[in-house]
Amino acid sequence: MFDSARRESYALSMSANTSATKLLGSIMSPLGKALTPAAAKEIVGLRADERAQRRIKRLASKCDHGTLTPEEQAEYRLFVEVVDWVALLQAKARRFLNDQRS
What we know:
By secondary structure, the chain is an all-alpha fold. Helix content is about 85%, strand content about 0%. The chain has a domain at about 1-10 and about 45-100.
């Protein structure tokens, strides 16, 4: 779900997201200190609900066809930013859980 939205929007927002993701990563760096195993497992399991997944899929399709309205483009970019943020959180949570097992 999140992966397909990221893949389909890659060309749309690559350079802006790279900078934003790096900045977000540095801001979230202390997060690892606050995680518990239970919280990390919850973060790793985060998924969009069915309604959001359908909306992302529809917007991705319209983006692929070049038919997004300006409002839809803004909405789609927001979804992509949220997906990137969640993916970064999940990566930190996975790393935390792996470190706990070591």
